[in-house]
Amino acid sequence: MAKPARPELSRREREILEILYRLESASAADVQKAMADPPSYSAVRAHLRILEEKGHVRHRSQGQRYIFSPTLSREKARRNALRGLLKNFFSGSKEEVVATLLDMGTEGVSDAELERIAELIDQAREEGR
């Protein structure tokens, strides 16, 4: 049986989760300090609690404070997010995702990155045979 999808994240929740990925683990105060335009401490705590309820974050006690960390690796979270985009915006078509990325232009994409993309496509072709 497939696991239920995790609920969508708000902009603030994504920001907090990104901070936790960067710091690996942090207290609510540490998260608040790392935010660009931080809300109140209690708002940060509320967001962390919501993230925990949604299954994105877990905590452990360290003295009198909680230390929060992501429940998934960054790579697994990226794959889950991309899977959702693929399903919701591209009808499951990987071709449409790549076409959309290329339609956005290659400005800022180095020759080395384009070469690596070509290698990945060649590798996928070989594995598909």
What does this structure look like?
- The protein has 129 residues and is mainly α.
- It has two domains: 11-70, Winged helix-like DNA-binding domain superfamily/Winged helix DNA-binding domain (Arc Repressor Mutant, subunit A); 74-128, no CATH class.
- The protein contains six helices and two strands, in the order H-H-H-E-E-H-H-H.
- The protein has helices at residues 11-23, 28-34, 41-53, 74-90, 94-103, 111-128; strands at residues 57-62, 65-70.
- A hairpin with a 2-residue loop joins strand 1 (57-62) and strand 2.
Instruction: Compute the CA-based radius of gyration.
Output: 19 Å
Uncertain segments of ≥5 residues (pLDDT<50)? Answer: none
- The total domain count is 2
Label the CATH architecture of the largest domain: Orthogonal Bundle
> What structural category do the secondary elements indicate?
mainly alpha
- The helix fraction, in percent, is 55-70%
Q: Whole-Å distance between the termini?
A: 29 Å
What is the CATH topology classification name of the largest domain? Arc Repressor Mutant, subunit A
CATH class identity of the largest domain: Mainly Alpha
Mean pLDDT: 90
Tally of DSSP helical segments: 6
Query: Would you list the SSEs in sequence order as H and E?
Result: HHHEEHHH
Strand content is 5-15%
Main β sheet profile: 2 strands, antiparallel
